[in-house]
Structure formats: structure tokens, C-alpha cells
Write a structure and sequence with these properties.
- This protein has 33 helices and two strands.
- The chain is 65% helix and 2% strand.
- Among the domains are: 44 residues, no CATH class; 140 residues, no CATH class; 106 residues; 101 residues, no CATH class.
- It starts with a helix and ends with a helix.
- It has a two-stranded antiparallel ribbon with strand order 1-2.
- The longest helix is centred in the middle third of the chain and has 26 residues.
- It is an all-alpha fold.
Length: 674
């Protein structure tokens, strides 16, 4: 039976009416799509032609409100709509009036040449290809183009970022909330053409060097040269041969000598309300201590302490601590968010992009301690909590990378990077000028970082791409030389150094791992850190690890006797191995955990850890047999509390997880409801 067009149209409208019943109004894009499909043809939208067109076309119009570039247009209202009004200019692409669509098109085309960019290259290309069709009188043509251009702008990370900046300037809180969500929780398509400068320093070292030289040669003003470096490479803690030290060395070759580099560099850093320029300033004076004026060494150590010190107790925060926290938390969030959506991709590329995004977003906000703390607590920490939970349960297989590992796993990649560089010219920095409180803060950070045993294997200088790649042990040895008052701390740090040197030099990986259950907690921590660092950053002897894991006596001792923190480090390393190598690791690991879980029924804390890793390993393996083993076994009633927790936890994660993860979670959730 054939139906005429009127019946088809009526049926479509009936379906659409039911689908949209919960909405108070239909947005312009949806209405345009309906019109394109011959639905709701008589429904029109109000076009503000008379009042908007002259203001939009004239940049000097008295009713135009001054604001930086972006997709939002602020203007003064008239009559009943007095006060500042805001318009999302892309909405005008759906106007029935060609003049209004053309004015909106002109508005976005003027954004093409802005720097920093307000639109990605992909969006510019779509606008250019569709521009003529958008100005057409043919309804099908202009509507198709309007939807394509609108969608590109709506999904453009640069454009959404610019919108957040506009809203902050005009104190438009509702707009900040809306656009910041798009910026902090981006789709992959919204960031895939964002130009982050350098994707992988390990592969592009010569390119970085040539671009640094190019900036130095082509830029006469030193502030401009520093700004260009900051925009292009500043988001990465590059090794000293790629740092601003190299930039300024090259700049001085091309230009006259600078009278007072100390004042020049700190004046530049002070003008930027962000902690990152201060890191680069400290890196420069660490490499070139001869430029530090007499009497200013204590000031430098205060700045170094601001970067290195990131305490657990926020009451001990310094001036820039909250800003550093925000930057590092954002980087961790973006890394988790992107990895969960890009399994099997390059870890260094993802981490580079995560750091770039984190720097850009953190630069939107002032550095005042209380404001940053409030912003972290209400916005960024909840986002990090969500992305890290999804990342943990997702366990995406990612190509190993030191940059990726540290971005996700340590408090501050910048703190570690600066600490690792201090050993070269330590004496010339006059550590005797460090104030007592700063000395204690640096020593605490240094001790914790040495225990972290990174890098797991010392590297030749030529192979170091990032500042954190240099061994911390050099800094530690220099530190204890000047540590005269507290002999106990000196002995402790020396003991750490000796233990780490022995651990990182030995080639007997299996021998070290077998020691794990039988040594005291300090050595357990060192072995576990070294194990995890090695797994995440380089190729490891899988057979040696399997030999330990397949030994029921070792496994039982390690899983039962190890300190809980050590257990987490070991589990994280094993999970990374399972994710990357699959096969026998995915077949057996979930059951290894399940077996040991049944063996620790009398230890609630240990049971929680082992049940959690049975769940995580099962999700990673896309298998439920290990979970069934626990829930259908003789101890099934002992797991009721854990089952209830994981039902709620996984249901919450499922709301935010990418589709491929949701598929894996369905089977696990169904099993937990047995």
C-alpha cells in the first residue's frame, strides 16, 4: 500500500510531537532539520533581524558590548529587554533571511586569522566549503550547510574555549557552566585537529631544536621570544637542551647581550598570572646560575620551593600551590579522559595533548589561592574523579611512555622535573641560603621522589627528552652533602639512594620481584615502585614476572603479606601487563585474584583489594568467570557487602563510560546481580 505525501508528513509530525512533548521549545537546529524533512513546515522561529543585523555588522556600534573574540555576541537590549543580552551567533545560520545568515558567516570568517586561534583548521575548512551554499536561496542547500557549519562550530574545542573566556569576562555564569563542560569533557572529534605544537618529543627532538633556533633568530624582543616558546613548547617539561635556556642562548647569539637577565625573565613571568612561566624561569637559572645576582639566591630557592612543594595537607599550601594542583589535576583528568576513548594509541602523544589542554584551561582562571581552591573543589576535582574511575575500570591498552606514566601517576610532573635538574649546579645555587621551612619542604619532596625510583633505569644524556629523565640520585647525593644538622635524615636519604642504585642497576628482575613478600616495608615499597615504573615505561621480562605469578607460594605470600600500598602498586603493574599483552594474562589473572580473595576471608581490608582487582581484571579481560567463581562459591555470603558496593560503583561509571566500555560492564553488572 502506498501513502501520499500528506499522510507521510502527518505521521512524521505525530511521531515528532510525541518525541518532543517534554520540551518547552524547539531549538533552531532541530527545527531546521524538521523543515528539511518536511515536518512542522508551518512552525517558524523569530528572527531578530531589525535589532541584531546593524549591531552585528558594525564593530563600532554603540550597542555592541566589548568582549574578546568568540562565538558569543554581547549587545545592549532595547525596550522590555534592556540590559546586556547574549547571542550564540551560530544560531543565526538557521535564519530564513539571507542577510542574517551572511552576517553570521562574516562574523566567523573574521575569526579565521586570530591568534591564538579561535577555530580549528577542520572547522575553517567546513565553513569555506559551505559558505556559498549557506548564502543560497535554495532551502535544501542552505539548510544542509547551516546544520554542517553549526555542528562544526558547536564541536570546536577552540571555539568553546573562546566562549568560556568571553563568559568569564562578562561574568556570565550560566555560559561558563555550559561551555566549560564542553572544554573539560571534550569529544575526540573536537580535539583531533587542535594544534598542540609537539606531539612526541622522543620522535621530534630535531624539530623542536630547529623551531627553538627559528624563534630566537626571527624574534627581536626577548619577551616575544619567551611568549612564543611558552605557547609552542611551554606545556612540556623538556630537557635542558630544549628548555628556555637553549632559547636564550640562541637569542643572545643573534642579538645584543642582555644587561640583567634576572629582572628580564622574572618581569616576564610576573606579567603572566600562571605558575608555568615561573617553572621555566627556575629551570633557566638552575642551568645558568651565573646570571643570579648577588643576594638573590634565597629568592630563587623560594620560587623553586613553590614548584617542588605539593603537600597532602592543603593547610601548608604556598602562594602558587593551588594553581599547581589545578594544572596537574587537569592534566591527569585529560589524560584519563582521552585514553579511555583512544585505546591502543600512543601514550606520549595523548599525554602531550593532555598537558597542552590542561595549561590552556588553567590559564583561563586567576591564581588567587581561595578562588582556585573553590574552582577545583566544585568543578575540576569532580571531573577528575569521574575520568579516573572510568580510566581505572577501562584499563585502556596504551603504548608505553614516561610522560604518560608520570602525568597520571604522580602528584606533579613539574616538581619531579625540577628536582631531577637541581643536581648539576647544586653548589652554585648556594643551598646554604635556603630558609629552614623551605629546606624541610624540598627535602620531603626529594625523599618521596627518590623512593618512587624514577627513572627505573638511568639513561645517557643524549637519550633524555624530558627534564624528569635525569636521575634524581644526583640531586639526592648533592643534597646530603649540605645536610649537616639532621644526621637521621641524612642517613635515611643515603640509604634510599644506595637501595635505589642497587635496584636499578641489577639485571636480575625476577630475583628482585621474588624478594617482595619477605623484606621490610621500605624495601617492599622500593621494589613495587620499580616494578610498576618498569612495566609502564619500557619492555619488561614477561617470563620472569609470569614465573613469580604462577608460583602459588610466591603469589600467596605477596598478596597476603605485602603492605596495602605495595599491593596497589603491584596490581596496577599487573593490570597494565594484562591490558597490553592479553592472552594468558587475561585468562589467568582474574582467577589468580579470585583464588587469593577466597583465601583472605578473615582479612576484610585485603578482601576488598582482591575483590576489586578481580572485578577490574575481569572487565579488562571481558570475562565474568572469575566473578562467578566468587559469587557461586562456598564463601559467596562473605562478598555481599563488596557486591553491593560494586553494583553501585559500576552503574555510576557506566553513565560516563565510552560505548566500548559500557558493553563490557553490562556482563559484569548482570553477574553481580546473581
Amino acid at each position: 500500500m502506498e501513502y501520499n505525501s500528506e499522510i507521510k508528513s502527518a505521521a512524521k509530525e505525530r511521531v515528532a510531537t510525541v518525541a518532543l512533548k517534554h520540551l518547552k521549545q524547539i531549538d533552531a537546529r532541530t527545527l531546521t532539520v524538521f523543515h528539511r524533512n518536511q515536518v512542522f513546515k508551518d512552525m517558524k522561529r523569530d528572527d531578530p533581524l531589525e535589532c541584531i543585523l546593524p549591531i552585528l555588522k558594525d564593530p563600532n556600534h554603540p550597542d555592541r558590548v566589548s568582549v574578546s573574540g568568540g562565538p558569543l555576541f554581547f549587545h545592549l537590549g532595547k525596550g522590555e529587554k534592556q540590559g546586556t543580552r547574549v547571542l550564540y551567533v551560530a544560531d543565526l545560520f538557521f535564519s530564513e533571511y539571507v542577510k542574517l545568515r551572511t552576517a553570521a558567516l562574516d562574523y566567523f570568517e573574521k575569526m579565521f586569522e586570530e591568534f591564538p586561534p579561535l577555530l580549528t583548521a577542520k572547522t575553517k575548512d567546513i565553513i569555506q566549503k559551505r559558505a556559498e551554499h549557506l548564502k543560497s536561496d535554495d532551502e535544501q542547500n542552505w539548510r544542509d550547510s547551516a546544520v554542517a557549519i553549526y555542528d562544526a562550530i558547536k564541536n570546536d574545542w577552540y571555539c568553546n574555549y573562546a566562549a568560556v573566556k568571553q563568559c568569564l569576562e562578562r561574568n556570565f555564569d550560566k555560559g561558563v557552566e555550559n561551555f566549560l563542560t564542553q572544554v573539560v569533557r571534550p569529544t575526540i572529534s573536537s580535539v583531533d585537529t587542535v594544534d598542540v605544537g609537539i606531539w612526541a618529543t622522543s620522535e621530534q627532538k630535531q624539530l623542536v631544536e630547529s623551531e627553538i633556533v627559528k624563534i630566537a633568530r626571527e624574534t627581536r624582543n626577548i619577551d616575544n621570544a619567551l611568549n612564543k616558546y611558552l605557547v609552542r613548547f611551554g606545556h612540556l617539561p623538556l630537557t635542558k637542551s630544549l628548555s628556555i635556556s637553549r632559547l636564550l642562548e640562541e637569542w643572545q647569539k643573534q642579538n645584543s647581550k642582555i644587561g640583567n637577565l634576572w629582572d628580564t625573565i622574572w618581569s616576564w613571568a610576573d606579567r603572566i598570572d600562571h605558575p608555568l612561566p615561573r617553572y621555566h624561569a627556575c629551570m633557566f637559572f638552575n642551568v645558568h646560575p651565573g646570571f643570579i645576582p648577588k643576594g638573590r639566591h634565597q629568592k630563587l630557592w623560594q620560587e623553586i620551593t613553590e614548584i617542588i612543594h605539593l603537600p597532602n595537607d592543603e593547610e601548608d599550601d604556598l602562594c602558587w600551590t593551588q594553581s599547581w594542583r589545578m594544572l596537574c589535576e587537569l592534566a591527569r583528568h585529560y589524560c584519563c579522559h582521552l585514553e579511555s576513548r583512544l585505546p591502543w594509541k600512543d601514550g606520549e602523544r595523548i599525554a602531550s595533548q593532555a598537558l597542552w589542554l590542561a595549561v590552556r584551561v588553567s590559564m583561563l582562571f586567576p591564581s588567587a589561592k581561595e578562588e582556585v581552591k573553590h574552582l577545583r573543589e566544585i568543578t575540576f576535582l569532580p571531573e577528575l574523579a569521574t575520568s579516573s574511575r572510568v580510566w581505572q575500570i577501562t584499563s585502556p591498552a596504551i603504548k608505553p611512555s614516561e610522560l604518560r606514566f608520570l602525568t597520571i601517576n604522580i602528584k606533579s610532573i613539574w616538581s619531579l622535573s625540577l628536582l631531577a635538574q637541581l643536581g648539576d649546579n647544586f653548589g652554585a645555587l648556594k643551598p646554604e641560603t635556603i630558609q629552614k621551612e623551605d629546606w624541610e619542604r624540598i627535602e620531603q619532596a626529594l625523599s618521596g621522589s627518590i623512593v618512587g625510583t624514577f627513572p627505573p633505569v638511568p639513561k645517557e644524556e643524549a637519550k633524555v627528552n624530558y627534564a624528569f629523565g635525569d636521575s634524581l640520585l644526583k640531586t639526592g647525593k648533592q643534597w646530603v652533602k649540605y645536610l649537616k644538622e639532621n644526621k637521621e635524615n641524612k642517613e635515611m636519604i643515603n640509604a634510599f639512594i644506595v637501595a635505589v642504585e642497587k635496584l636499578t642497576k641489577t639485571e636480575d628482575f625476577e630475583k628482585n620481584l621474588r624478594k617482595l613478600p619477605n623484606v621490610h616495608q621500605g624495601d617492599q615499597l622500593l621494589i613495587a615502585h620499580h616494578f610498576k615504573n618498569s612495566v609502564f615505561t619500557e619492555e619488561v621480562p614477561l617470563d620472569a614476572i609470569w614465573n613469580c605469578l604462577n608460583d602459588s607460594l610466591w603469589r600467596e605470600a605477596a598478596f597476603r603479606k605485602s603492605h596495602p600500598i605495595v599491593l596497589v602498586l603491584v596490581f596496577d603493574a599487573l593490570n597494565e601487563i594484562q591490558t597490553r599483552y592479553q592472552e594468558k594474562w587475561s585468562y589467568h589473572l582474574p582467577h589468580f585474584y579470585a583464588v587469593e580473595c577466597e583465601n583472605v576471608i578473615d582479612n576484610k581490608e585485603r578482601l576488598q583489594h582482591l575483590f576489586a582487582y578481580t572485578i577490574r581484571s575481569s572487565v579488562c579481560a571481558d570475562s565474568i568467570s572469575a566473578i562467578q567463581r566468587l559469587l557461586l562459591g562456598k564463601y559467596k555470603t562473605e562478598f555481599l557487602e563488596e557486591v553491593e558496593y560494586w553494583q553501585k560503583h559500576l552503574s555510576q561509571i557506566q553513565k560516563w563510560a565510552p560505548e566500548w566500555v559500557k558493553g563490557r560492564l553490562r556482563a559484569v553488572l548482570a553477574t553481580l546481580h546473581i
